[in-house]
Amino acid sequence: MDGLTLLQQLVNGLSLGSLYALIAVGYTMVYGILRLINFAHGDLIMVAAYVAVMGVGLFSWPWPLAAGLAILVTGLLGVILERAAYRPLRRAPRISLLISAIAASFLLENLVLVLAGGRPRAFPAPAWLAGSLELGGLYLPRLSLVIPAVTALSVGALFFLVYGTATGRAMRAIAADWETVSLMGVDVNRIISLTFLTGSLLAGVGGTLWALKYPQVNPFLGILPGLKAFIAAVLGGIGNLAGAVAGGLILGLLEVLIVAAFPTWAGYRDAVAFGLLIVILLVRPTGLWGESLEEEKL
After folding, report:
1. Where are the alpha helices (DSSP H) in the chain?
2. Is the pTM of this model over 0.85?
3. How far apart are the C-alpha atoms of 64 and 137, rounded to whole Å?
4. What is the DSSP letter of 288?
């Protein structure tokens, strides 16, 4: 592989890894607060894509309006899920929360299947995202530049919220010990709802970008990116925001570089990711930047 090809693959890997990172931070935020693997998080990606495709395709909304509404609906849906499926079980055994998350995932998939049908739909992209730039022989699709930029802005805003505001301090305190924090007058329910809202808004952004990169929408769209983002969160250390971002970038780069170096392995691309998850859990179950399982914080 020559230098130009390697640089090209790094651009592609950075674009894919940015998507994983954007989705993974939603997983890690919820886990940091409730110690819950929210398996419905991937389906929020699918809902965002469907709202956008319906807005543009059926109602002829302008693309920014459709994308903005898709992100907003996804955020509100995350809050509804928290209130309906997780809050009543907050004091129940962890396995009950996990089963509720799996049930919520199947519910969303089948609800969309009934309402929109199982036929895949093409995702319309705005004209300004089409095409690419060429720089010294380097092929730079506009979307591959937009995705990392949007991810950087979104993650930067998230870090400011978590580490630079009173709400973020409350989130981190609840992640440490929400029962004690509730005795200090903090509205725990409101902060947890805000956490779900934030993570789900990021899933909405990620879902819209994912549908732009892979422009075909179906009710099971969110399964694979959701699982890959979960692997990224585990790789970086689930419960650690910076670790989730780093894990997403590493996973995206690994996937692209492995396929570029060994083209005959292209069909094993997903197997490599899931094999990586097994290796991480065996060798370093807390991830590369994770704290001990008893001490994980946002």
Report:
1. 3-34, 41-57, 63-81, 94-116, 142-164, 166-183, 188-213, 223-236, 241-261, 269-283
2. yes
3. 32
4. S
Contact by Cβ (8 Å): 277, 234: yes
Q: How far apart are CA 21 and CA 280, in angstroms?
A: 17
Say if residues 256 and 266 touch (Cβ distance below 8 Å).
Answer: no
Classify residue 228 by burial, with Cβ atoms within 10 Å: 0-12, 13-18, 19+.
buried
Cβ-contact 104, 80 below 8 angstroms = no
Q: Which of 47, 48, 66 is nearest to 58 (CA)?
A: 66
DSSP 3-state assignment of 217?
strand
- 8-40 pLDDT per residue, tens: 889 989 999 999 999 999 888 888 888 888 889
Phi-psi region of 136 (alpha: psi -120 to 50; beta: other; left: phi over 0): left
**CA-CA distance, 89 to 101, in Å (whole number)?**
11
Return the closest-CA partner of residue 297 out of 20, 101, 34: 34
The answer to whether 98 and 104 are in contact (CB under 8 A) is no
CA distances from 178 to 172, 188, 189, 237 (A): 9, 7, 10, 21
Residues 26, 45: Cα–Cα separation, whole Å: 11
Question: Mean pLDDT for the chain?
Answer: 88
